[in-house]
Amino acid sequence: MMLTGRHNRGRLDEVTAENITQLLDSYGQQLSNEDLEDMVKELNQQKEEEKGKEEEPPLKYKKTSDLQYSFSAMENLTDKLFDTDDDREQNVIVKRV
């Protein structure tokens, strides 16, 4: 069990005395090529997991009944505006300045 990196933060309940002893014993030793390759693989895996989390926006769905209600409300508002407009022709003409 490696105790370094962001991947293992917050998991102190899994650390045992044996893990600490092993870490202290290995502190002065050089890393082997295999150890370095494992660290690179773990880092790449962490990056892929973080990248996957960032690229997946939550999907939002609208119910057909909600859309129908919204369009109906807009249509009712438009009808009401036209019904209360006394001079419809004058208000529809666009004047250029």
Ends: how far apart?
76 Å
Total helices: the number is 4
| Biggest β-sheet description | none
Order of helices and strands: HHHH
Tell me how many strands there are.
0
Structure in words:
The protein starts with 16 loop residues before the first helix and ends in a 5-residue tail after the last helix. It is 61% helix and 0% strand. With 97 residues, it is mainly alpha-helical. The protein has a domain at 6-55.
Task: Give a topology summary.
Blueprint: H1 17-26, H2 33-55, H3 64-84, H4 88-92
List keywords for this structure.
single chain, 97 residues, mainly alpha, 61% helix
In short:
The chain contains four helices and no strands.
